[in-house]
TrEMBL record:
InterPro entries: DUF4336, RibonucZ/Hydroxyglut_hydro. This is Metallo-beta-lactamase domain-containing protein. It comes from Exophiala spinifera. SUPFAM superfamilies: Metallo-hydrolase/oxidoreductase. Pfam families: DUF4336.
Length: 264
């Protein structure tokens, strides 16, 4: 199954992009959910003001990725943003053994050979303290009720939200741009892409958030999204699946979460 999920030679299809006027680099690759649905995958590198680098949702550690990391600075933080986006954490941890690992509760058990320095739990859902340099630049919100136990981060200096499975922005155009494959092709991709996008009123993604993502604790989910609404001035959203939302991120987030604002 893994061979169907990830590209056989990720080096050939990897898209490395520096976001202008920011210390952020995205690493975008093709990714097939269930071996069929064209989700796309994305890691995000952020160079902190101290010179250290954080990687969110690591992708394949190719020679091009290593070269980019070497040019940016030492990897200090490796962040698995939920219990699904962790398959390559061990590869990165072995390459950068001095890095501190972040992840939600339940993830350390999947990697008994790794030491997680910062494990997010429901006890502190908002801005769990980590290190001084990381907390100086990042805010965080933990969604333990989400089926994937989502961690969402906000890079305050660039007004950028970094997230995994909280919001999708399909089609995954950039992520499949070097693959020679149409990111909209295939019946299942068409069906899922019609739901998990940010176009129009987003009614289908709203339904997914309401009936699936938040079903474990809808009131708690609403509390978290309302905290984000009130305290994060989001301009850009970098999702793991689908294209980066370069501008107007706050309006799109508010549109997606409108039912929670209205009903709680």
């Amino acid at each position: 199954m893994a061979s169907k999920l990830f590209p056989g030679d990720p080096e050939k299809v990897l898209v490395i992009r520096d976001i202008p006027n920011t210390p952020i680099t995205t690493l975008s690759v093709p990714f097939l959910r269930f071996g069929r649905i064209k989700f796309g995958g994305r890691a995000t590198l952020v160079k902190l003001q101290t010179g250290d680098v954080a990687v969110f949702s690591p992708v394949a550690l190719t020679s091009a990725v290593k070269a980019k990391v070497n040019a940016l600075g030492p990897i200090k933080y490796i962040i698995a943003p939920d219990v699904e986006h962790h398959l390559l954490v061990e590869t990165w941890a072995k390459e950068y053994p001095e890095a501190e690992l972040f992840g939600p509760e339940g993830l350390p058990e999947k990697h008994p050979g790794l030491k997680f320095s910062h494990v997010y739990t429901a006890k502190v859902r908002t801005d769990m303290p980590t290190t001084a340099e990381f907390d100086k630049e990042f805010s965080s919100e933990y969604f333990p009720m989400h089926p994937n136990k989502e961690l969402v981060f906000y890079h305050r200096p660039t007004r950028t939200m970094i997230e995994a499975d909280l919001l999708f922005n399909l089609p995954a155009t950039e992520q499949f741009s070097k693959s020679g494959v149409d990111p909209k092709s295939g019946l299942l991709t068409k069906l899922f892409g019609g739901i998990m996008n940010t176009r129009g009123d987003m009614v289908w993604q709203k339904r997914f958030l309401w009936y699936a993502a938040s079903k474990g604790d809808r009131a708690g989910f609403a509390e978290s999204v309302k905290k984000i609404k009130s305290s994060w001035d989001v301009e850009r959203i970098i999702p793991c699946h689908g294209d980066v939302i370069e501008t107007g991120g706050k309006a799109i987030f508010d549109k997606a979460m409108a039912w929670f604002y209205q009903k709680y």
